[in-house]
Design brief:
3-stranded antiparallel beta sheet; 3 helices; alpha+beta; Zincin-like; 3-stranded mixed beta sheet; globular
């Protein structure tokens, strides 16, 4: 992932296999992360930042979304860079239908650069 700083604009690129560049004016990475975190909370995603032990010679994992006891949980490596945290959060959000939710245009554009993910399905309630 790369991040280019040009004046007050920040350009985030290389989300997954896509290298499209997105210009986000007047937002720094912390603000982007905060906005995405707020959006995740609206979808009921709980976020935990914890160290993820990884072998040095393997691919680094910045985190991921899981379904734990019927609740969405996003674990983000506390040692990950802010750019990796943003990417991890954005990838998790792509599992959800964002079409009916208001999202700031610049953030929506950022999210649309990430391929849509298969929605998580809740476990079947066998008590019915």
């Amino acid at each position: 992932m790369s991040c280019l700083f040009q004046g007050s604009a920040k350009i985030l690129s290389d989300f997954g296999e896509h290298c499209a560049k997105i210009e986000i004016r007047e937002m720094d990475e912390n603000k982007i992360f905060d906005e995405l975190q707020g959006l995740a909370e609206r979808f009921g995603i709980k976020i935990r930042c914890e160290p993820i032990k990884q072998e040095e010679d393997l691919i680094r994992i910045a985190g991921g979304l899981c379904l734990l006891r019927g609740e969405y949980l996003l674990i983000i490596d506390s040692k990950a860079t802010m750019r990796d945290r943003i990417r991890t959060l954005a990838e998790a959000l792509r599992h959800f239908d964002l079409a009916q939710t208001y999202i700031q245009p610049a953030l929506r554009e950022l999210l649309e650069q990430i391929p849509e993910k298969k929605p998580f399905s809740h476990p079947v309630d066998k008590t019915r």
